[in-house]
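Section 5.1 Outputs to date
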Amino acid sequence: MPLSEHEQKLLEQLEKQLHEDDPKFANSMGSDPGRSWSTRHVVIGVLCALAGVFLLLVGVTLQNILVGVLGFIVMGGGVYFATMRSSSSGTKGSKSGSGKAGKQRSSFMSSLEERWDERRRGEP
């Protein structure tokens, strides 16, 4: 079921607030709006990982430890590169208005807290 426009706006506000309040946690959750998945990174990373697997198998077949270790390193680097997120160009623009967003955030949070308290008081 798709979200309504109002719900989408609320979700975007909550995400922005999370990034302002606790950017380290928000980055660990991977919902940073300033960073996105890059198809190019995924494709290159997967190709490198496959090349690494191939080198690893060649190293095992030839019983050459150096080629096997090199294959493992290439494979790991490919996976890392595929899972990297690239910064979008709009990141600088979103950080410039952080002063206004902080004021909106506090009023937004206070209104949410008030609504939550009202709901809790209404229950037996």
